[in-house]
Amino acid sequence: MSTLTLDAEALYRELLAGVRPLLAPETVLVGIWSGGAWLAERLHADLRRPGEPGVISSALHRDDFGARGLAGGGDATRLPFAIDGAQILLVDDVLETGRTIRAVINELFDFGRPRSVQLAVLVDRGGRELPIQPAAAAARLTLPADQRLTLARAADGRFTFSFRPKT
User: Fold this and answer.
1) I want to staple 92 with a disulfide (CB 3.0 to 4.6 A). Which of 13, 36, 138, 147 is the partner?
2) d(Cα 144, Cα 30) in Å, to the nearest integer?
3) Model-level pTM?
4) With a cut of 50, which residues of the chain have pLDDT below it?
5) Are 125 and 94 spatial neighbours (Cβ–Cβ below 8 Å)?
6) CA-CA distance, 81 to 91, in Å (whole number)?
7) How far apart are CA 62 and CA 1, in angstroms?
8) Alpha helices by DSSP H, 69-117
9) N- to C-terminal Cα distance for the chain?
10) In sequence order, what are the residues at sequence separation of 6 or more whose Cβ sits closer than 8 angstroms to the Cβ of residue 33?
11) Which helix (H) or strand (E) holds 12?
12) Angstrom distance (rounded) from CA 13 to CA 8
């Protein structure tokens, strides 16, 4: 039996190239807590964007909030710029059902009304339950529904992936 491996650093370079055409001078990056926030931070630096990237949490708007509570960064939203009229590029590590993106968009609208919102992801693993589509994805793959793909960041900032069973 072969084991699937993903080179997260190579995929990051693909994502970096994929987001360049999506950026206008006024576009702001907003990373979804936690893997997306790590990616947005590094993209922001590598693209030499002005200011700082935003971080947004999906916790308060999740449809499973009753079961999860504030697990996953409920107080992590930090948007150091005005949302009204902003061109936003949301960044996430892994896109599956689309439910996190729906929750994050609801959170964004709690802060104002953006002009546009686009999505860039490191991995689109399919399995969509909502009509959410990324404008850029470094990789598209299909994984078994019972498998979780998790991004990790080392102390030196390098990314790796791990595969685990969903619990």
Assistant:
1) 36
2) 29
3) 0.91
4) 1-2, 74
5) yes
6) 16
7) 36
8) 99-111
9) 23
10) 55, 56, 57, 58, 59, 72, 73, 76, 77
11) helix 8-19
12) 9
**Cβ-based burial of 156 (10 A; exposed 0-12, middle 13-18, buried ≥19):** exposed
What is the helix (H) or strand (E) element at residue 32, kind and residue range?
A: strand 27-32
Residues facing residue 97 across a β-bridge:
none
Torsion sign, CA atoms 116, 29, 57, 11: positive
103 burial type by CB count under 10 A (0-12 exposed, 13-18 middle, 19+ buried)? buried
Sole residue written with tokens 């993106």: 101
Q: Are strands 136-140 and 159-165 parallel, antiparallel or unpaired?
A: unpaired
> Encoding tokens for residue 145?
């529904």
d(CA 67, CA 23): 37
- Other CB atoms within a 10 A radius of the CB of residue 83 amount to 19
For residues 32 and 88, the answer to whether their CB atoms sit within 8 Å is no
Distance from C-alpha of 15 to C-alpha of 127, rounded to nearest angstrom? 21
